[in-house]
Structure formats: structure tokens, C-alpha cells
Amino acid sequence: MATKNHMMGRAALLSAALATVLTGGAVPASGAEPAPPSPASSRPITSTPDGTGAPLPGTGPVPTAPSPAAPAGPVTDGITDARGMADPAAPDAPADPASPGAAGVPAGQPSLIRGDPRNFGAHIFKGNAFDTCQAPSAATMRAWRGSSPFGAAGVYIGGRGRACAKQKHLSPGWVRTVARQGWKLLPVYVGSQSPCVIAKNKRKVRMSSRAPYGQGKREGLDAVRQAQQLGMGRSSAVYLDMEAYRYKRKSCADTTLRFIQGWNSAVRAQGYVAGYYSSANYGIAHLERARAAGARGLPTAVWFARWHTRPSVHGERNLHPRAWQPHRRIHQHTGNVRRTYGGHTVHIDQNLVDAPVAVVR
CA distances (Å), 29 to each of 144, 350, 354, in order? Predict the structure, then answer.
């Protein structure tokens, strides 16, 4: 937990980002962790000016931070590690649930969570990505690298709620191999789910309502361990997957937010970038409401699922148009589809990315 003086110092950094809040209407959306596959190189691109993500010849990822990331160190037991990822636009939440900035406790003017994450060490990818429950083989990745429109891949690195717990291919060697092939990676951690999670298959891994902040911290530390074991070093992004939940139930929303705040604090304290994935109409709408109320400890980057709509990282109606900008958003726009490239078929979701990725050692 940060000291009071440290929290005041970090709060001072927010002065340039303070803004009044706009609210957005809710619209139907879907989105979920990909289902396990049934038995049965991309050319990295940038989005077009209209946000469609159509391939552009000769384009590639946004350049990464000029200085290399420091090697990954051992995960500590707490979250006071001085090597932490300092995102001045997303200060940590107080551990005291009654303090301003904690879940459900207004904290004055909210931050828009703005600023280029490369300024504090994050590496950015801008282009098309896919995510899939089971990491494909290196051979499939090689085939897709040369023939698909994708330049990045979402991989599920751990968490008690992960659908494909037994990953046949995902390993440190796989990560190094696909990185050498030219892929950027989006690590996803499916931890404990909200007490009011909608999906029946996730209810068995609901979080505790007793001490959600502490549980979030513990799982955040585990997320960093999993990333480190795979060779993803400091300054890597790790995205918490929180499936759709009924956030309008206040007690459930507060419990879930406290878990998220603890998770983010632990991840950042270890020098990693805290990201968050959820449905645009549920978890993302909740996050925006919390931001507007002045909550602290929010993620550096958001990954929102809204299917059956044009790919765009800018047009999500449940996010303030200037919040989580720039290079802090991913739009999952298509889900549960089969795609074949280079003779290899994979069951995927499709995403448009302008956000932090893993840093492979």
C-alpha cells in the first residue's frame, strides 16, 4: 500500500488530466472469453483514419519506448515495490475501503486517464489482433504470420477462471519463438469473477465479498508470476478478464471494483502495465461510471467487447471520448469465428488494437 505522502504526490500529477465528466448511453453488446476449440505474420497494420483497421501496405506497430525494459525481477509478497509501473494518470486506490477513491466513495474530480503509456515504459502495438482460448502451435503462428491480417495475438496466461487451463503449446519457448516470428502478444489473465457474473460457467470462480481488495492483490501477483515465467518482462501489459456482470447492483459493483483496484495495484507495483477486458455494456460501463465518480486504482488500458459493429478504438459509447487515450484501448469487434490462413484454421475473436503489449525478454 502506498503511503499517504506518496498518494498525495501521485495525485498532484493528475492536475493536467482533470476534466468534467460526460455520460454515455447503454447499447446492446456481447463479448466473452473464447470457448475452447471443438475437436474438429501477419503483416502488422495500423488502422485507417476511419478506424476500420483495413490493411495498409508497409505499415507496422507504433514504435516502442526508446529505452529497453529492465529485466524481470522476482515477484515480491507485497505491492510496495519501488520499481513499480508509475502511470500518473491512473493512481492506485487506497487500501482503506472508506477512503476517497475507493469503490463507491467519491473522490472529487476524476482523471480521464490520459497520456502516452510509452512515456513510462510501455510498448505499444497498433493494428489487428486475434485472441483464442488455446494458444496455437508455433507452426500455425508461422503460417498466419505470413498470410493473415493480424500482427498481435491474445494469449490466456493463467487465472482460476481460465477456460483452457491446460495449454498444449504456451511456454517460454513458444513465446520466444512467436516473438521472433514478429508477433506481439496480449497476455490475458482470467481470475476470480464478479459475485454477480452473468455466465453460469463462471459462477464457480466468483470472488469473495469479504476482502476483495486483498484477493485482487494476490491474484495480481499471480498474474505477474505467470507472465514472468513465460518470459514477459517488466513493462509488459497484462489484461484482467472480467466477464459481464450486473454492475447496477451496488454491493456487487463495489465488491468487483475493489477486486479490480487491488489487482491493478499489485500488477503495477511489480513494474507491469495493468489492463482490463470486459463487455462494453457491463464491465466497461461500470468502469466508466467509477471513473466519473472519481474512483482510483483503475486500469491503464481497457479492452472492450462490442460485437457486430465497425472496428474502432474511438467510438465506444460507454466510454468518455477522451478517456483512456491515447494508446490505451482495444476493441474486440468479432467473436467466435473460424478463420483459415496458410492452411491452418483457428477459432478466434478479432480485435482492433492501439494499446500496450508484452515485452518479451
Answer: 29, 15, 21
